[in-house]
Design brief:
This protein has 5 helices and 18 strands. Strand 13 and strand 14 form a beta hairpin. It folds into 2 domains: 199 residues, Immunoglobulins (Immunoglobulin-like, Sandwich), CATH 2.60.40; 139 residues, Immunoglobulin-like, CATH 2.60.40.10. The strands form 4 sheets. A 6-stranded mixed sheet has the order 8-18-17-10-15-12. The protein has a 5-stranded antiparallel sheet with strand order 9-16-11-14-13. The radius of gyration is 20 Å and the shape is globular. By secondary structure, the protein is mainly β. Keywords: Signal.
Length: 347
């Protein structure tokens, strides 16, 4: 964290500078008024008051609670974990459909902007994996728990009853406290997460790809602006690409595929392979470009992973939506999913 970041504080004059952040304040007020997913009127919208406590949830492993920060990706928090039992597991797992799972969230106290034991409520939400998930309308609350948070690390366990199918979700954790208010909350989850150390986001999906047996995952892209927007899907291999042992296909469905065709089939490192389908070829980074989204849309399509050979090593793939967060803006990261892939034979 640079020197400038270390001196950032929650007061409005220091954080909310320039025309861009003034616009975000306007969005914050609109988001707070819209309700829907449990927005808290005591903390959302407008400049934050001076905080006396400061609980934070890590966005990345190096996160020490300073805000805003420049770490990426924002949507793979190590402090949010899903486990099949009430005993915390070593590694987060995909939830099991139809039964009670458990979400573990680590609350760290103090952060750089306060001290003392904090009292508040931890709220956890879910949405379809992908980008463009406008706050609060795209999110459904899973559960909430009011807890005291003394100095140190407090792990809060929230039961997740009757997980709906297909069992693949983005998760959002929000620590809500009158002595630790949000700095800003608007429809852009990316801005909310970067500017509030008491918000964290986890979009991580484990995929065990079997040889010759496609594994299908849902992915959604959204547009919360009031005008049509054009959006890119970017596929980035974090280390060794999965294409070394398998294939990745985006089945856009008839509507998105037709819009892509009408745009001239823009993109790099891809090829059209069949009805509504685009194969991801580039082993490092590929792009499906200029997908048109109407205001308020968040269509869902499918990603298909198929192994052609077994491998003892894992593969990590980031799939990210890039689009404008407001009318006339440049394309930016609107969210994505980290896929942790393994390839093998059925046991």
């Amino acid at each position: 964290m640079g020197t400038a970041s270390r001196h950032v504080r929650r007061s409005a004059p220091r954080l909310l500078v320039g025309a861009v952040l003034a616009t975000l304040l306007t969005l914050s007020s609109a988001g707070a008024a819209s309700g829907g997913a449990g927005t808290d009127s005591t903390t959302a919208g407008g400049p934050a008051t001076a905080a006396t406590t400061d609980v934070y949830i890590k966005d990345v492993a190096a996160d020490l609670g300073y805000q805003p920060h420049s770490y990426n990706p924002l949507w793979a928090s190590p402090d949010i974990k899903v486990c099949p039992t009430a005993i915390e597991c070593a590694v987060s797992q995909n939830p099991i459909v139809g039964v009670t799972n458990y979400i573990f969230v680590k609350l760290r106290n103090p952060g750089p902007y306060g001290s003392g034991t904090a009292n508040g409520t931890l709220r956890v939400y879910r949405t379809t994996p992908g980008g463009g998930s406008a706050w609060p309308g795209a999110w459904t609350q899973i559960g909430a728990m009011s807890v005291p948070v003394p100095p140190g690390v407090t792990t809060v366990t929230i039961p997740w009853n009757g997980v709906p199918g297909p069992g693949h979700f983005c998760l959002l954790a929000r620590w809500v406290s009158p002595t630790d208010p949000m700095t800003i909350e608007g429809p852009d989850i990316t801005i909310n997460t970067r500017y509030n150390n008491n918000i964290a986001w986890r979009n991580v999906d484990s995929v065990f790809a079997l040889i010759g047996r496609p594994q299908v995952r849902p992915f959604a892209i959204g547009n919360w602006t009031t005008v049509p927007t054009r959006n890119d899907l970017v596929f980035t291999a974090v280390d060794v690409p999965f294409q070394n042992v398998g294939t990745i296909v985006a089945d856009l469905g008839p509507t998105l595929f037709e819009r892509w065709v009408q745009a001239g089939r823009p993109g790099e490192g891809i090829r059209e392979i069949g009805k509504n389908q685009v194969q991801i070829l580039d082993p490092k980074q590929a792009r499906i470009g200029d997908l048109l989204l109407n205001p308020g849309e968040r269509p869902e399509f499918q990603l298909i992973f198929t192994a052609n050979a077994a491998s003892s090593r894992p593969f990590t793939l980031h799939v990210t939506q890039f689009g404008p967060a407001k009318e006339g803006a440049e394309k930016t990261d609107l969210g994505g999913v980290e896929y942790q892939l393994t390839a093998g034979q059925q046991g």
